[in-house]
Amino acid sequence: MEIVKDLAERQTLEHNTLLGTPQLENSVVTFSGKHNILYCEENVRLVDSKISFWGNNSVVFLSQNKHDYYLNVGIYNNSICYFGKNNYINGQLGIILSEQKHFFVGNDGLFSFDCWVRTADPHIVYNSQTGKRINASKSVFLGDHVWIGQHAFLLKGTTIGSGSIVGAMALVAGKTIGSNTSYGGNPAKKLADNVFFTRDVVHTYMKKDTKKHAIFSGDDYIYRFSEGETLSFKQIERRISQCASAEDRLEYLRELGKNPAKNRFFIQESKPLSLPQKIKRKVKRKLKQVKNR
User: Fold this and answer.
1) In terms of CB atoms within 10 Å, which of 97, 99, 202, 292 comes out highest?
2) What local confidence, expressed as pLDDT, does residue 279 receive?
3) 3-class secondary structure for the chain?
4) pLDDT tens string 188-235
5) Of the candidates 61, 63, 106, 96, the residue with the CA atom closest to the CA atom of residue 80
């Protein structure tokens, strides 16, 4: 095991790599495996944080940030944990990355108190009739300028497009959340379409401030599909899986981070199924279950 609590201790690393010059304040980086990389751009400050590499060949990528990082990361084999630029984390953000899956978040996000991200259930669940596993692990992807409310849980397979909001206490499990929508509840359901948020904080507002901010003019935080600009998270994950080593994953993430396109992580939310479509899908699913018996 290799442990870094002070930047000078990275000189003792033999089997893992810490790149950059992060400030470590009451923070510890633990490497229990080999060939892992913690990569930090300029102006990275880890406060009250734990980053634990429990496997091999994984990458934690922390982009430059005008805010402090408060992280509790447990990452296993062949996974990536990527933070874009200037994400604000209000209290420790918990992340557990299992079974070669990933967590990815773009730029300018907001994370409230005590939020959690998990890519797997800790134990395997099987169908009692077929014996087949039914709880596959999946990556979690977030776009740019997302707001995750207090005590929210983002579980395996969650994908959130740029400009969206997840409310406090929400449990999001395997949903695809389109850009500029808000979700809340347990399980999370759509609350509104065509919304956006700003980083303004209303705590100290007086009447004049409330009146001043009654209308926001501009489309700074409205995201749209753009041909040749919008990327697919499925394509990103496929590309990551093609990387043969942690060094290859790091190089790909560095290039991806240089993409300045506003609409790069736009997601068009699929329309709800009509009743005939729901019935057709249900019948098809039943036929498949019978066939697999």
Assistant:
1) 97
2) 73
3) CEEECCHHHHHHCCCCEEECCCEEECCEEEECCCCCEEEECCCCEEECCEEEECCCCCEEEECCCCCCECEEEEECCCCEEEECCCCEECCCEEEEECCCCCEEECCCCEECCCCEEECCCCCCCECCCCCCECCCCCCEEECCCCEECCCCEEECCCEECCCCEECCCCEEECCEECCCCEEECCCCEEEECCCCCCCCCCCCCCHHHHHHCCCCCCCCCCCCCCCCCCCCHHHHHHHHHHCCCHHHHHHHHHHHHCCCCCCCCCCCCCCCCCHHHHHHHHHHHHHHHHHHC
4) 999 999 999 999 999 999 999 999 999 999 999 999 999 999 999 999
5) 61
Residue 96 has, within 13 A of its CA and on its CB side, a CA count of: 10
Q: Where are the domains of the chain?
A: 2-292
CB atoms within 10 A of CB 225: 11
User: What's the pLDDT score for residue 277?
Assistant: 61
Top-tier CATH class for 2-292: mainly beta
Global pTM reads 0.91
* Lookup: tokens for 225: 């599909």
> β-pairing, 176-177 with 93-97?
unpaired
The amino acid sitting at 30 is T
Angstrom distance (rounded) from CA 106 to CA 147: 12
pLDDT in tens, 109-126: 999 999 999 999 999 999
- Residue 271: both structure tokens together: 């329309």
Q: Which long-range contacts (CB under 8 A, 24 or more apart) does 286-293 make?
A: 289/129, 289/130, 292/130, 292/132, 293/129, 293/130
